[in-house]
Amino acid sequence: MLGPWAAYRALTPQPRPGGTDIRLCRLVHDVPPGADPEGLARARGAAVHCAVTGTGDHPWGTLPYTLHKPENTS
């Protein structure tokens, strides 16, 4: 799945194509502050996810929220 946060939240969980041996990746943009993209991705069976704040033509030019958290810097 690739798309904006609002569309991802509205998406109902679906069975994994190919069974449970397939790893799913979610690429979600326009994620608001305070959202829990990691929790939602895991609940929907995604092993890998990237959620960014960016919008528009190139939303991937921003960092994921997890890289902005002080506990992730040292």
Topology:
Layout (H helix, E strand, L loop, with lengths): L1 E3 H6 L13 E6 L7 H7 L2 E6 L23
Parallel strand pairs: 1-2, 2-3
Descriptive account of the structure:
This protein is an alpha/beta fold and 74 residues long. Helix content is 18%, strand content 20%. The protein has a three-stranded parallel sheet with strand order 1-2-3. It is elongated, with a radius of gyration of 13 Å. The relative contact order is 0.21.
Structural class: alpha/beta
**Could you estimate the helical fraction of the residues in percent?**
10-25%
Nearest-angstrom radius of gyration? 13 Å
- If strands are numbered along the chain, what order do they take across the biggest sheet? 1-2-3
**What's the story with the biggest beta sheet?**
3 strands, parallel
Shape: elongated
Number of contiguous helices: 2
The secondary-structure element order is EHEHE
How much of the polypeptide forms β-strand, as a percent range?
A: 15-25%
Spatial gap, N to C terminus: 32 Å
Strand runs, count:
3
The overall average pLDDT, rounded, is 77
